[in-house]
Design the sequence.
């Protein structure tokens, strides 16, 4: 009976550790998604408002998109919210794509798992030219 109780307790503890780690990763990913959405919208809206249009197929300045993304991330203090935050901004035609990557420190380390996970979020927005 003792062996059975110890076995069940071990399984329950491993399940609690796994659920806690997965929940923390999910919550960080959700916050990272929201930050990426805000950054890409800030870049797309800024590009649409602050540039002279020379037709509906005018090229988008990748440096301006990167600058607007950086300004948004600074404004929301994203580096304080996420550990080891890295980001990239890519312009594809009239679409701006922002990718954010961070690491998550997990509260538990079950056997065979690492204590950190890398989480990434990608958001895209089309720059409308009017």
Sequence:
């Amino acid at each position: 009976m003792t062996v059975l109780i110890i076995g069940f307790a071990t399984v329950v503890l491993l399940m609690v550790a796994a659920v806690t780690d997965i929940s923390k990763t999910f919550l960080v990913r959700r916050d990272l998604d929201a930050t990426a959405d805000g950054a890409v919208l800030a870049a797309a809206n800024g590009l649409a408002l602050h540039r002279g249009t020379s037709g509906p197929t005018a090229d988008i300045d990748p440096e301006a998109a990167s600058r607007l993304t950086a300004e948004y991330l600074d404004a929301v203090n994203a580096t304080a919210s996420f550990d080891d935050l890295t980001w990239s901004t890519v312009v594809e035609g009239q679409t701006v794509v922002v990718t954010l990557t961070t690491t998550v420190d997990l509260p538990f380390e079950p056997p065979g798992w690492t204590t950190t996970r890398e989480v990434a979020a990608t958001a895209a927005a089309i720059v409308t030219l009017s």
About this structure: The two ends are 75 Å apart (CA to CA).
